[in-house]
């Protein structure tokens, strides 16, 4: 029976500790949002396993944290939900990771001469050292995630003209705070004065934090891999199912328990969709949105599984809040899709968005296309076998997963509130 490969410290990018400390503060500082009202940590919080606990996030304009986050009111209320589930951050500093986002729209590539194929194309700046650094910049340029609505601030106004034009505004905000300026000079050898700081150093600092803070591989399963420590009986049965009859390891393989590839698993559709330009249908075509290749329609990146029990809801749109329900879906997607109800998602009630939340489900042609695109065959599992697979997945939770090296800061240099 196949096994995942063990992970060691040598498998991770060697980030600078001073840059990681700087990145921790930036990660939780709302100064990087157009309206100064949301941070990276709002949707990837330590208290929520690096996610937000929602199927579809409540972004810029919302208030509060996690499942208790509200959509705001008046002119500042949110205009739509974030179209996809906030991805987990665990082990993204592993050297095997070269593609990010559910649709893989960011990947290491020389196509634009800056090291990456990204939505920013040739306007992504030079000097970003890792795919994590490139990833960190994109939410800052997203209207509904961090930039804000048109007319509300200078950042979104600049982004509306071109994706990269908002980043210099944010960089100036940061470097003109004396505490940040001094930290950048200390952390980066090529920065001699605060005026030299650009969005590139901000992205690299955020990557250093994410890549070190969320590295975790001390689970019971890791102990089994490295020194043969037996798993509990139910988790051991689940391990045999995972790598055997259930077929999970066809996609969830390698050191990160992900083949880093894209597959169609017919998850139930809902939400505003991640629509492409000129697409009037509130749908999500997955990888096809990045490649424009029909063969990629409705396919999404295989998630990594360490600490998966901490990162509900599950799926690219958070269709399932229960790990057990997600296992059932993966075993028989067609049946689970047909049986799914909106109550299985974690969507705080937002009266003005209720109509759009599930309108895609009334489009029988789109539903038929999605249901027909499936990259797996059903596997019959008993309830006891599902329980055993869940026990195995729970054995992937690190002993120190909830005890991170830096954690959430009590304050940030901007003086803005910390979620």
Structure explained in plain terms:
The protein has 419 residues and is mainly α. It folds into two domains: 17-51 and 87-213, Cytochrome c-like domain (Cytochrome Bc1 Complex, Chain D, domain 2, Orthogonal Bundle), CATH 1.10.760.10; 227-394, Orthogonal Bundle (Cytochrome Bc1 Complex, Chain D, domain 2), CATH 1.10.760. It is built from 16 helices and five strands. Strands 1-2-3 form a three-stranded antiparallel β-sheet, with helices on one face. The longest helix has 15 residues, at 199-213. 49% of the residues are buried. The mean pLDDT is 96.
For this entry, give a set of tags.
single chain, 419 residues, mainly alpha, Cytochrome Bc1 Complex, Chain D, domain 2, 2 domains, 3-stranded antiparallel sheet, two-stranded antiparallel ribbon, 16 helices, 3% strand, globular
Q: Name the CATH architecture of the largest domain.
A: Orthogonal Bundle
> What quaternary form is this?
single chain
The strand line-up of the biggest sheet is 1-2-3
| CA distance, first residue to last residue | 45 Å
CATH topology of the largest domain: Cytochrome Bc1 Complex, Chain D, domain 2
Order of helices and strands: HHEEEHHHHHHHHEHEHHHHH
CATH superfamily of the largest domain: Cytochrome c-like domain
On the 0 to 100 scale, the average pLDDT is 96
Strand content: under 5%
Q: Which spans have pLDDT < 50 for at least 5 consecutive residues? A: none
Major sheet, described briefly?
3 strands, antiparallel
Number of domains: 2
| CA-atom Rg in angstroms | 21 Å
DSSP helical segment count: 16
* Extended strand count: 5
């Amino acid at each position: 029976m196949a096994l995942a490969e063990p992970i060691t410290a040598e498998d991770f990018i060697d980030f600078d500790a001073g840059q990681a400390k700087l990145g921790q503060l930036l990660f939780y500082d709302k100064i990087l949002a157009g309206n100064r009202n949301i941070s990276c940590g709002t949707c990837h919080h330590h208290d929520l396993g690096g996610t937000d606990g929602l199927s579809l996030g409540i972004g810029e304009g919302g208030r509060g944290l996690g499942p208790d986050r509200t959509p705001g009111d008046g002119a500042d209320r949110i205009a739509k939900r974030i179209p996809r589930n906030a991805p987990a951050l665990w082990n993204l500093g592993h050297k095997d990771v070269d593609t990010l986002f559910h649709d893989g729209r960011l990947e290491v590539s020389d196509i634009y001469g800056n090291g990456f194929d990204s939505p920013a194309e040739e306007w992504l700046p030079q000097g970003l050292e890792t795919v994590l650094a490139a990833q960190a910049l994109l939410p800052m340029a997203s209207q509904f995630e961090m930039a804000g609505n048109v007319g509300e601030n200078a950042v979104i106004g600049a982004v509306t003209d071109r994706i990269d034009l908002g980043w210099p505004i944010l960089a100036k905000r940061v470097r003109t705070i004396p505490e940040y300026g001094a930290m950048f000079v200390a952390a980066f050898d090529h920065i001699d004065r605060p005026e030299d700081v650009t969005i590139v150093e901000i992205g690299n600092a955020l990557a250093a934090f994410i890549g070190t803070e969320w590295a975790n591989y001390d689970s019971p399963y890791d102990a089994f891999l490295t020194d043969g420590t037996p798993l509990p009986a139910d988790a051991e049965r689940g391990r045999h199912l995972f790598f055997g009859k259930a077929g999970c390891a066809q996609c969830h393989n390698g050191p990160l328990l992900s083949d880093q590839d894209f597959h169609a698993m017919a998850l139930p559709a809902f939400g505003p969709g991640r629509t492409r330009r000129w697409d009037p249908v509130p749908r999500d075509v997955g990888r096809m949105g990045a490649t424009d290749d029909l063969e990629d329609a409705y396919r999404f990146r295989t998630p990594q599984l360490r600490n998966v029990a901490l990162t509900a809801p599950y799926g690219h749109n958070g269709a399932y809040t229960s790990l057990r329900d997600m296992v059932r879906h993966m075993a028989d997607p067609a049946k689970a899709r047909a049986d799914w109800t909106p109550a299985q998602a974690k969507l705080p009630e937002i009266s003005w968005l209720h109509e759009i939340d599930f309108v895609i489900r009334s489009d029988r042609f789109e539903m038929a296309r999605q249901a027909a695109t499936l990259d797996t065959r059903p596997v019959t599992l008993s309830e006891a076998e599902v329980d055993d697979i869940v026990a195995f997945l729970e054995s992937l939770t690190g002993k120190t997963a909830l005890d991170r090296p830096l954690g959430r800061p009590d304050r940030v240099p901007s003086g803005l509130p910390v979620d």
